[in-house]
Design a protein that fits this description.
Elements lengths: L1 H21 L2 H18 L10 H20 L18 H19 L3 H12 L4 H8 L3 H19 L3 H13 L4
Helix pairs in contact: 1-2, 1-3, 1-5, 2-3, 3-6, 4-7, 4-8, 5-6, 5-7, 6-7
Amino acid sequence: AAASALVLRHTDKIFAAAWRMLGDRAGAEDATQETFLRLWVNAAKWKPQGAKFETWLYRVAMNVCLDRLRRRGRERPEDEAPERADPAPLADARIETAQQRQAVDAALAALPERQRAAITLCHYQELSNIEAAAALEISVDALESLLARGRRALRDRLLPRRAELMEGVRHDASAPSL
């Protein structure tokens, strides 16, 4: 019952982190499952006086994701089939948002693995720098360096597309309401 409660409580967070690291749903599902399998096998290694349980679990998840990335040699999955257009009146806004998200996701996927892991844990999973550093088994200074380099790389990749990415935002703000 306790193991089931832990899985239920943490699955969504671990899946989200794995999705950001791996970039595909099937891989993220497999990584999430493998994370909890490793948790079960290695549960005795966690020490309550050490890292928080959630931080330790993220460390396990990041190691699983890094292992998977190394195994596949940073191959990019083939493009998925395009989504069906939503007939709702705001479909164009959703498409623009999806394109913006895809641009950011592509820029994130192009980062080196450690920078991507640092940004994923701090910005998407909302871990503190201390917790993220513990999950990656590095110092806080090293984490902050990874974050700074990762943010700079994201900015450099996205800056040339700024006008294109911001176009939908300006369009929505100036659109007349019905």
